Amino acid sequence: MTLFPFTLTENELTWDTSDWESAWDSGDNKEEEATSASKVCSFVFHQPFQDFISGIAKLLQLLTNTHTISTECFAPQVEEVTTVQSAPWLQDCVVSLSPCSDLLVLAHDQKAAFLSAKWRSVDSGREEMTLAVSWTGTLSNDEGSSTGRPDWTCVVVGFTSGYVRFYTENGVLLLAQLLHEDPVLRLKCRTYEIPRHPGVTEQHEELSILYPAALVTIDGFSLFQSLRACRNQVARAAAAGSDVIQPPPLAYKKWGLQDMETIVDHSSVGIMTLCVFDQMRNASILGGFNASVKGSPPAMCQYVTVGGGPYTGFYYAVEGSSQPLLSHVALAVASKLTSALFSAASGWLGWHKNKNEEEAVQKHKPKVEPATPLGIRFGLPDSRRHGESICLSPCNTLAGVTDDFGRVTLLDLARGICIRMWKGYRDAQLGWLQVPEERGDREFSPSSALPRRHALFLVIYAPRRGILEVWAMQQGPRVGAFTVGKHCRLLYAGYRLMGVNSVTSQGWQLHTQQVCLLDPITGVLRTVNIPFHLALSDKKSERAKDIHLFKRLTTLLRSREVEPDILESEAKSVLLDIKHPAIKKQALESLLSNKNPPVSCLTNITCSLYDTLKQQDPEEVDDALLQFCSSQLKLLQLYTGIQNLHSAADTKTWNFMFWGCLSGKSPLHKVCDTLQQAGIGPQQLLSLLLSVWLQREKEVLQKPEETVRNLHTLLIALSNMKGAVEESWDPQSVSPWWQQVRSICIQSHNAAAALLAALVAHHAVKACITSRADSKSEWEAVSLELEQWVVCVRQLEDVLVLQTLLLVPPPQGAAGGAAAQCSIKTLLEGGTGGIADSVSKWVFRQNLAGDGLKDTLPKQLCQRFPHSLSPDLLFAHCCWEYVVQWNKDPEEGQHLCWAVEHLRLVSSPHIQLGICTMMWSTFIVKRLSAAAYLMEKVSHALTKLTVLCPHCLLCSFFMQADSAVEEVSAPELSVEEVWCGAEGPASIAELALEQRGVHYPLVQHHCLLASLLHAAMTFSLKVKPLSLFDSKGKNAFFRDLTTIQLMPSGDMDPGLVSLRQEFLLRVLTSWVQAIDDFSSSAPVTSSAPLPSCGPKADWWPSLCLELGSLLQVNPDILRRHIVCELYNQGLDLRAEEVMLEVEDKDVLGSQLLVLTGQRLSYSLLHSQSQTQAAMELLARLPPTLCTWLKAMDPSELRCPLVPLTQTSRLVGRLIEILPENHAQYSLALHLLEAVEALTTED
Asked: Where are the domains of the chain?
């Protein structure tokens, strides 16, 4: 009887158990261990399930009773039972625990109980995780199993009849499979593991089922998909009330294991490939000296079995030697799905079947496929020894085997040999622990650049001795031993989640328990935790001890309740006991960076460590550690000295040291003397002084006179320190000391404070140079240093003005982020266009249009940057900023419109043309091609109307700028003299001037496509835009506009011209329908002005006529279509305006004659308000006219209710345009008489 669990997951759902572990890894739970006080590994009390403890006797009665006990009577009696059995009842049950430790299954004979993890409140009010009974029932035949719960749980059950059945965690049967007609001995699962090294073969998921003489393997991916489909179908069947569902068959392989007398357990190692040497060795052993060897070793699946004759067998199945078999799946699903979750006594799941039902099942037993023979490759012969179990390591290279002699054997699976053996472990239970290297250990490892290492440990539970041992692999010592009960069960799953692959496992962090120990006496589930460093060497390793001491110090520093004296003594002891210099330095850094210890405590600890290092042999002391202790000790002593001078302490070091002096709260000379005695370099003190000055800009500006005076004093004092300004400094050269001050001011974003500091430094430098010069000289000393300061001050003044503008907050609801930081360094690194780029970003945040930009910018800013903020340069950068923002969010079409608006304001056609080329190649062509290809594919108009209108405007700018380039010379761009040192990228205008000229026909070709796409999107027309062009036209699209392409020429194919004409006619029809804002019952009587944009814009007819000329469509056809559509819509006045431009009046007259007949036919024959006079007029009409009117179809009119006066006017127009010799001239006269008569009657 076998119990085996595995886990399924969907959509990468996992259940994080880290909270459970932390909840029970506390001081309230006593840890049992047989090691010394220095813990090397620990037992963690994990998830005590009190419901299970209180009901343990009742549960045993349930599992061993021959009668059925329903869960309805079991559940309330669990808490009433208080006795606990001490008999080894658990050894008679099959137990399985999920990898996440959230589901436990116990089975005995035909009954099973599922215990699920749940939260509950104990008497003390604290919540704890318990395992409570969630389902019990009788299993058909003999065996059962369970899994974890990242998403849902599948229970795999093996039976003595050979069946393997799959259940949910609530007892619902998913599918059943008869693979072999022998009892199931073992079920084992292999799930996906992320390969830790490039050379490791990636193993696939697999479920293996062992029979006495056969082994069946089911592919994990196929099984996962089948079980998921079955679960979904069961849920749908429960909702629909159906009975049976047929799932797809399973794909499996079946091997007949030969040459071994008895087999009791197995392990599926996975796919392996022999090296060339092993391949040649095997070939020579099997085939002799003349054996042939294949070029590449074949991939093989390795299976290891234990039993008798031989004691251990190794089988190898070459990939492809056996084709997967398709099984017949018997699915049992009944209509009572809801009630089955709670009623274990019902027989609808196949439990307690009567004889007739069993006979029916026997008659319909599915076909069992024969096994493929698989001979043993080799084994470990031992006639007296019989193996009992085998446990595969997580790395698939080692395996532990137990036997009836009380030995535990360690096998090397790659070499097929025994490498270690333990004796005195009768009835032993095995498990494996794979521990990753801690991040702290990697820093001290010589192989820190290599992938993260893993340590392997073997866990052995000896129930007869009541001890749990942990051994390091492969030849390592015992690293831990725990005294436990003699009736426990060691639970080792050996797998994780099923359904995970190399893609879904990225970033996968599943908290699973590798080894757990279940104690039935106390009802406690425990896990084993082992630190990685125990695998490096024995317990006396100095490095491992140092790491342990460092962790001990870290734990001590985290505790806020430790007294300073105790903390000082403990920290001293730890630091002095650590031997490794790098670890000792890290421990000291961790101590000094902690905020809890007082300064005196840190000073005493550092001083004690420094004295100890000084007393040791100089050759044995690490110089870096000694220097670090010395510098830190000086810093602590300086801190103490400064603190005594200040009235109030500040948190940051530089604020603590200098702000008191700058604000006038501390004596300047005493602080300077203390700093000089501390031995800190003046360069470091200068950097600290300027840092606090720049960061306290607001406080400085509140009292500028006092703070500036104090800054000057401190700056002079630091300059006079030894090592500050060199005595041999020549004023005609640049001083490194004052260059440091300039560098800090140049990099600062606080322009006001930096400007004040620069003015103070400039004054100090001038005084220093004057004092060094000849006092008798009447000439003012000229110095390169002073010139540098003049330039720096001027730049800071410019930055201050610019920063004042950039800090103006944007209006509420405007786009854009925070204000850009501005400094001399950022502007210089931004190149010649850095200033214009900063202003353009501010323009975007302010949501400003191009027209009012000149009036918005301050005059002082424009005066300071006459070249950097010239109109063309500024408009060019604003245009580029808006198009960049549009590219980030294409839904904001207004950004692109404003980009084109700024481009329009650029006066230079050279810059304008270059920016058009850059915008096209960088942004526009990608969007335009995507829209064209998408519409070509789906033949449906898109809805992004805001995208293509600016594209059309951009194309028009292309053509306008291209025509004006030859008339105007290219502009010359320059920058201000103080900003000539810019070394960053070129400005947008400079890049635009570097662009090559465009090919005008190619621009016009793309403009044509953009107009067609714009029309299709505006009026939601279904069209394939690229199909309106021939092969040459299609190939020319989306090319570089500076290249010359082969363009369409000559007469087009008539069929293609017909398609173009049809599209333009549809555009005109849609425009006419859009401009009619009134219903058919209230037609337009006057020609109202039309808007300038959108589908009602007045330029659509002229655009279509222009497109028609480019597409070789007769424009007169388009004009006649506009006239007819306007009359059809009842817009007679607009139609009369367009009628004047029509050339072929005869054809237009024939078309309008039909339209007039439709109007008159509607008034006389189809109107609901027909009058007696109209009927009499119809009787008086000539027969030919009457017949012609009856043949008219007024339903084609979109506006049939037109006043008779408009129809009479239309007929009059017909008489004017139709010649007298026209065939339908007489019909027009009859229509005129009829309309006049009808008008007279009205």
From this structure: 540-637, 649-772+781-807, 853-995, 1144-1240
